[in-house]
Design brief:
disordered C terminus, about 20% strand, about 400 residues, alpha/beta, homodimer, 12 helices, three-stranded mixed beta sheet
Chain lengths: ~400, ~400
Amino acid sequence: MRRAGRYPAAFTMRVLILGGDGYLGWPTAMRFSARGHEVSVVDNFSRRHWHEKHGTDSLTPIRSLEKRREAWKEVSGKELASYVGAIEDAEFLERVIIETRPEAVIHYGEQPSAPYSMANREQAVETQYTNVIGTLNLLFFLRDHAPDCHLVKLGTMGEYGTPNIDIEEGFIEIEHKGRSDTLPFPKLPGSLYHLSKVHDSNNIHFACRIWGLRSTDLNQGVVYGTITEEIQRHPGLINRFDYDEIFGTALNRFCVQAAIGHPLTVYGRGGQTRGFLDVRDTVRCVELAMLNPPERGEYRVFNQFTEQFSVGDLAEKVKVAGAKLGLRVEVQHLPNPRVEREEHYYNAAHTRLLDLGLQPHLLSDSLLDSLLEIALQHRTRIREDVILPRVDWRATHNRRPTRPDA
Amino acid sequence: MRRAGRYPAAFTMRVLILGGDGYLGWPTAMRFSARGHEVSVVDNFSRRHWHEKHGTDSLTPIRSLEKRREAWKEVSGKELASYVGAIEDAEFLERVIIETRPEAVIHYGEQPSAPYSMANREQAVETQYTNVIGTLNLLFFLRDHAPDCHLVKLGTMGEYGTPNIDIEEGFIEIEHKGRSDTLPFPKLPGSLYHLSKVHDSNNIHFACRIWGLRSTDLNQGVVYGTITEEIQRHPGLINRFDYDEIFGTALNRFCVQAAIGHPLTVYGRGGQTRGFLDVRDTVRCVELAMLNPPERGEYRVFNQFTEQFSVGDLAEKVKVAGAKLGLRVEVQHLPNPRVEREEHYYNAAHTRLLDLGLQPHLLSDSLLDSLLEIALQHRTRIREDVILPRVDWRATHNRRPTRPDA
């Protein structure tokens, strides 16, 4: 049995990346491959499919997984094994676990959008089914075939909501009526997607307690940026950059809006404060977690973000950066389609990844410049009509027009 | 919109009971029907099916739902409407909600066994799928078609686990680093079944916060007993009494073991302490919750039990009661198939139902006598080989022999 603690720098592992064709999975796969790990990726292309169904697309023209793997082999000389299928498909997933014998599983393989989950009953059920049942399958197969494997699971800071006390990393010591205990930090998730991540966290914690699995649950902030060191090595390795209301994250969306002269759409008053991080830090955090595994039976939680901003702050930053490039950027406050506090206390701990050696890429003017330049470069691909929010948290039927043939 | 607060005694409602053919659903249906409510029951007979598949059965010979409804009409003159189908079947459930226009939904319609959920991956997935997705369907259809309806949901005290602090009713005020907030009580559920109830609680709380639904989540203790006032009115109304390792609850199982001279099987040291209640109090608690609904948007939690006992205490009580009837009862400590603390602090609040007027039926010698007499009366139906635990929490494959034709 492998012990906890940092591995030597030259140590390489068999790594399975679920969702390895995605916005975070793809750069992670390349980085780990570049460092000599034996990497297999699993994907069922659901993000590509959802985009097709709704007539949306990545701002950047991304290639098929097959072509991406070819390009990666061309520049690195390294093979990425791939398995096409869904983790909800138990027979498929069991075969993958048996064949790849992973020492670490990086689990990005979930439906990742809050608005997607809130659009209607069908998509809510799809989200909780895919995420909860898929992860439950994984836990059983790790227990059966790879009990020593380290499960690195991507969760979200959105699991916590916005409590009026400091947010700790997964657990909190509670003093109550003269006694005390350290218990899971209470959660107040803000969408049915965020709830699916809470359900996952609870199931994974249980599997560690009962079966002795080991897992790191990374409660990640909102990710921005699109470029990592490996992506720059070949045009065929370009990463996804979503800007539509369903899959676009706030800062990426603002940059696209600035590039086409669309007002930056801030939901409500804009005092909503969240943790944010650069995509390069996502990849580095996952690597740090993997190289410093917990003990068997241990379930640990890291809050994975580097800075806190309000949505209003972000819009102001994009406005300033746009002005330097000669763009005239306005900020527009829309009625908030979500149900959330628009002014609130927010102070979340995030020291455990720093303790492992994370050196954050803080949000800088040059990063904003580069994001705006990417948006300008691809501006002919921007579809303005998919940016504005149509999914209202309060309504159960929010159907976007779908392509008749999708 | 209906206001919160107690209804007048003569007030009657349209009530939909999910799982209305079950151990708790059936006596609830009769009681509410007797009080003049307009009662519809939904069931897909999954408990009957699971028993058939595993070659087990209720100790008491129960009739089909159709025959039960006929017997109830015979003694009461009242009709119980019935819908046969699964709440996971969205089309079915939506039709039921539209047709019955419920003012209250009593939701017992879930897979209720911890050992069932821990037997293997297939049953774990079935449990979380049935319970979580079924309840999610229900929340959407209430939102769409009956937003004023009061959802009375059966949860379990097992959602909390055994923390080292007092367990409160759903929420706890936490003081932390000079600030404070009232947040959901942290949960440490002990099986994948218990986890499904935690997932449900989180989803329901969300639906109340976001959509303004109203719900009472009843975190129920372990139920014992089988008879209510209405059941005694006709032999055809007899209630289920499970004693097998999968669906039998501890006290019922001990009485059956005593009746056939089998040692009472206490798992581990027997210091596991839980809340318990009489089935008559289950029915009364659900009625009190229904007659005193929360406001729109309110999610409240009542801990529904009347007394705390350790499993060892219960075994001793059955031993003493058996001796009075001339039975020679031994207590046997088995290796614990579950992963749980066997000696622990346990003190759970349960005042909110008492505040609404609950007058508990505490566990008495006469109740124990009556349970033992029922077990003796039906002793020829007892199958000794289904009592001992075969589902081990630590193993992922626990297959009971199944009937080849099931």
